[in-house]
Write a structure and sequence with these properties.
By secondary structure, the chain is mostly helical. The chain contains 8 helices and 2 strands. It is globular.
Length: 206
């Protein structure tokens, strides 16, 4: 007998992704282990050019990614405009979490716990985002993650070293996450595929 799947609205899933993934990014940075690779470039810009917040630089970065995707595909995809809305909300939540995150106590043990929580949260959030039946990226993040993250880390290291005289924002946690998150995201996604069905206003029209 085939096991019935739990049906979840993609819109609610995406809302959860925005909240928890922005928390994961800020919590990983707060742990002192470094920032997540995909957020490292906005962090470098915020560090070198602190004229706007980390959240604002994150929005600039994400808009640039979506525009680049459209240019590479050589077509204007109207539905990807939704990505701009999602990016704005995600960036705003980063700034919201930064307002309170420093109130958390810190010690070596707590920092390790913060890193583990942030790692799991980000992996879960990305796997969820890839399956929410809403147009966020248009490509399989888990499949290209390692290569993309390495490029982000190289840009961050070069920027902070050249302008600040030191490599900033990158730590052991950043490197570990960059080379292992892709597989963990894939594993979580496979589990979701077996037990959960996502529906959204777009999938309903299909």
């Amino acid at each position: 007998m085939q096991e019935s799947k739990l049906t979840i609205r993609g819109e609610l899933s995406l809302l959860l992704v925005i909240i928890i993934n922005s928390l994961g990014v800020v919590l990983m940075l707060h742990s002192g282990s470094g920032i997540s690779a995909i957020s490292s470039v906005p962090y470098a810009f915020a560090d070198v050019l602190p004229v706007i917040t980390l959240g604002a630089w994150t929005e600039v970065f994400q808009v640039s990614l979506v525009l680049s995707l459209m240019l590479l595909s050589k077509r204007f995809v109207t539905v990807y405009l939704f990505s701009f809305v999602v990016g704005s909300a995600f960036s705003a939540m980063i700034d919201v979490h930064e307002m309170w995150i420093k109130q958390l106590p810190q010690s070596l043990t707590l920092d390790i716990i913060y890193f583990i929580i942030s790692y799991i949260v980000i992996c879960f959030g990305v796997a969820l985002a890839n399956r929410c039946q809403l147009p966020i990226t248009g490509w399989s993040y888990a499949r290209i993650k390692i290569g993309f993250d390495v490029i982000c880390l190289a840009i961050t290291a070069a920027m902070t070293f050249f302008f600040l005289g030191r490599v900033d924002g990158l730590g052991f946690g950043t490197i570990l996450a960059a080379f292992t998150m892709g597989k963990v995201i894939g594993s979580i996604g496979e589990y979701m595929d077996k037990h959960v069905k996502f529906v959204s206003f777009l999938s309903s029209r299909a």
